[in-house]
Amino acid sequence: MDIIQVEKLNANLVKLKTRVSEGQWGKRIVAELEYANRVSKVMGGQYDDLIDPVVIDLLNTLDQEGIIGEQAVRSAELRLSEMAAAAKSYHLICAAHAHLDMNFLWGWDETVSATLNTFRTMLDLLQEYPDFRFSHSQAAAYHIVETYDPEMLEEIKVRVQEGRWEVTASTWVEADKNMPNGESMTRQFLYAKNYLTHLFGLQLDDLQIDFEPDTFGHALNVPETLHHAGIKYYYYCRGHNNEGHHLYRWMAPSGRSVIAYKEPHWYDSRIEGEMVLTVPEFCQKTGMNTMMKVYGVGDHGGGPTRRDIERILDMKEWPIFPTIRFGKYAEYFALTEQIADQLPIVQNELNFIFTGCYSSEARLKQANRVSENLLYEAEALSSVSALWTSSKYYGKQLEEAWRKTLFNQFHDILPGTGIPETRDHALGAFQEISAMANSKRSAAMRSLAARIDTSRFLVEGEDLKESFSEGAGAGVGVSIKHQFRTGESDRGRGKTRIFNVFNSAPTARKELAEITIWDWDGNIQSIGFEDDEGNPLEFQFVDRGFAEHWGHFFLRVLLPVKVPALGYCTYIMTEKAGDMAALTANDFYLTGQNLPPVELYTFVLENELLKAVLDVRKLTIISLINKENGQQLIDSSRPAGVFRFIEEDTFQGGGNAWLVGRYRKIEELTEGIKIESSELGSKLLRQSITFSVPFRRSKLQVTVSLDQGSSRLDYNVECDWHEYGNEKEFTPQLQFYAPFGYESDSYRFNMAFGTIERPSLDLDVPANSWALGVPSNHEKGRAIMLLSDCKYGFRGADRALSVTLLRGSYGPDAYPNTGVHRIRLSICVVDASKNQQLIEQSSHYHLPLQYISAAASNGDWPTTQSFLQLIEGTIAISAIKMPEDTQAVNRWIIRVYETEGNTSMVKLELCRKVSKAYFVDTLERPVVEGEVFINESQIGFEVMAFGVASLCIEFEQ
Questions:
Q1: Residues contacting 806, CB < 8 A, separation 6+
Q2: Could you write out the DSSP letters of every residue in 677-692?
Q3: Which residues of the chain, if any, have pLDDT below 50?
Q4: Contact 289, 323 (CB under 8 A)
Q5: 271 by DSSP, 3-state: which?
């Protein structure tokens, strides 16, 4: 046929389909003819002349009889029998599932009910239809059954063993794939696979599919995490940048890859005749003869229906149709291995979907970041404590805390697209996570501190009968207000206090630590601090005198400390002989009233590295100089450090929890600022200025500070937010905006196990915690990095960085962020050429130094010690833990990733003799990835560029 005849055939098919709107037989032949037309098309029109007269005759039948019945269909099928073999040469595997959203638009009780009811329906259908197969993901769903209906679980086990119920769960939940860090992604696989293999008697390698139909985008390093978990196949539906391929090899920056299948239709679908129309073209493009049809009602569960099953049974018998059968995902993906070497390669992140999800429901974002950090600290310090003090490692309890964290990363929970019940359940779980991680972290530090020899600081003959600091401040410090630090439980006494400062980060630190002194009855003007070698230290009071807390009294000070990597140091506070002449006016609370008034204001924060000048009226940054080379990093015509109130347009659904709307109005919050306090002067350990500004129905209070020796300008933000979106008007947003003064064409962001560089994009994009403006043309000098302790939605465009702080989206939760929010932000001056340093700075930011105040005692350890040091290598460490087999108390699991894109030789000092070390996978099974060299307490190994590596280290007893 020529082009005109082909177009006429297509037009007649459309006419036939339009006229046949009802009737089983008419729909059947229309579906067969449409499919036949697609088969003919991929075969160069080979069957067009066969199909065309059949279509015309059926149109005539409709004209004459008004309906197409069985006889007409049988006759048409017989006339098309010449192409039946070609039609049947294509295969369609129908794989069933029931998408179960965890706590989406309903609470936990309804999630449980939807899961149990759905599974009951599936078990009944499996009983009734012997050929039917069902597949389900999410270990959390099976845990629901185990908890709430164990009898049902036994029925499912039977179907799993007979091969008719496929467990496609390799993760605890179908999680967000952009905001969780790399360790969280790893734990999804570790705990899901371990749980499911034990529950169903499966092998770890039986679970090779990561099933993510509804996840809102996919980070660049997802294939890396899949590879190490023994997962070979990735199924997803939502995502961009797949370069038009629906079956391809998705490759991580390291070169590791998985086979990815992007759903060509939709994951929540039914069995319809039209589902086969894409089969011939799909097979032609992929080189396969088989396509997969995913079906089943979802979101609120449900799954395949009786109608779906009956239709598949019927369509199997249609002569001009693909070879259709019930099947499983594993069957389909096994077939893809036949063409694995011919698949196209995609090396992109599969983003962006629903940019509002990076900032909606701010408390959930904060809970996730804090959970990840607390669990890292609890595991690392507990691992050290178990190895060195023989204290118990509470692996199962920490696993339970991880499971709660992983559940909260579900793709409708962490993204903030749920209702108030969704948020309430997640934040309740977060309190349990925090309680467990905090208690284990605190216990580990106390076990370690008990071995430190501080006997030389004991004050002989001191009368301690009146001491009442024991137990002071119990529980203080674990809340958001104190950055979720270890709860106070002061063990110091008398006038000499000992502070063991702990660093859970794997790199050494020199910075200010905030120390709290409880119930000290000495002369406050005579307080003195020294290090463990007796060297006196500067310090700075945070408070003006002692404050009361439930019958006890506390005073906070800032102390410059040096703490080794994954280790501790010791500092001593004593009462020195009073020297009133050494005191300044600032040491007295009311003396400032006697100073002359200041009418010419300047607000400058300056240390040995930076000089920041703030606008006197607006408190924005109008100058930021790197004093090492005099580089000006800010364009004074475009001030930085600006808080902006933005109205998002609700056009095309913008302004809800999923979508950031078009910015229709931007208002800088720089008018009516009230200065609350200031601590300025280059001799201070911490310089700061605190101001507040009201806006609409809300209020913002901000402290801008610069620490001695720091290249970071810190913003401690408290916002009392009462702004609410309206679908008919706009959605309110609070944003922090930081333009910079150098040229930049691209922006770098941290992500799971690494970083990613993106072009300038005027939309919110995901980052784990920071964004950086990359200098163009490798300009010399420093760059600006914007760092946050609890935010994920950043923008990099037009020589500026910004981060979305709060949004008042109008739905599904109409009042998502009401109340007080505490946020930390920093504008950092950094060397953009070294990812390792950027990641290290973020690590220190998220892992504040902790301390224990202990009474002087005998011990066998020095007053300063490290338990792990990175001697060589461009890596970052994401986990230090005991193996899941916690019976082996002399082993650690350490997980690292390469940061610079170069194969790196790594050397670690472990401060204890190593007897054996080897690579393992995510599931902690030995793998062959190279040799690990051992030299006493040091190990050496190679990590491929941008790769992740896990090691098991066995120590001598």
A1: 359, 362, 719, 721, 723, 733, 734, 817, 821
A2: EEE--TTSSEEEEEEE
A3: 579-585, 587-592
A4: no
A5: coil
